[in-house]
Amino acid sequence: MKGLLTIVLLVLSNTFMVIAWYGHLKFAEWKWFNKLGLIAIVLISWFIALFEYAFQVPANKIGFKGNGGPFSLIQLKLLQEVITLVVFAIFTLIFFKTETFRTNHIIAFVFLVLAVYFMFKK
């Protein structure tokens, strides 16, 4: 149960992270947003990132073996990175229609999934 909860929290965290880091590139299409200066955009991104941390910190606390969770620190980090890439890929395909994934992107993703497999292999 702790493992599944950790993964759900990481997905939520990474969703907010991707929006905070890359959302402003899409939001620039809105006239009112495009008029904002860099400082305002950074502040908006920080506000969004607050929700990222609100999910990320509990995910790590619940999921870490040292706190009774199922994952080592290294496993947590690698899991988080793969979730980040999956969330980023979905975000990109939905919101940035001009971006395309090429074969080398897919191969790189397969290697990351293999990295997770080997990280969890005993």
TrEMBL record:
The keyword Cell membrane does not apply. Keywords: Membrane, Transmembrane, Transmembrane helix. The chain crosses the membrane at residues 36-55, 76-96, 102-120. InterPro entries: DUF486. It holds the Pfam family DMT_6. Signal peptide: none annotated. This is DMT family protein. It comes from the Bacteria.
